[in-house]
From TrEMBL:
SMART domains documented for this protein: LytTR (SM00850)
Stored InterPro entries: LytR-like (IPR046947), LytTR_DNA-bd_dom (IPR007492)
The organism's place on the tree of life at top rank: Bacteria
Protein name from the UniProt record: LytTR family transcriptional regulator
Amino acid sequence: MSCFIFNRNKLIRIPMKDIVLIKAAGPFTNIYTVNGEKYPTNLTLKEFEEILGDKEFCRVHRSSIIALPRIQSIEARVVDLGDRQVAVSRTYYPLLLSKIDKFFKVKTKKKKK
């Protein structure tokens, strides 16, 4: 699957499997891909949430959506996506753990003693 965005008067197709991070930056939203490209667009994060669905992507901050398959590690509410680190807000952290459980079919909750 792919999404199409307008970028500098040009319609560009971006395969969803290539998206690593979507980050709000003032009046624009930047899409970062696996090949290091950055595509600014005027779509909002809310619009991206609707376009992408919730299976492979997760909002982790009011200004960031990440691709779950690109997660390398999570430490102290910071997600390592390989070449980028993204902060996870307290509000979105439980959602991220829940989506990781479903997507990777693992349990992220620590057992209580």
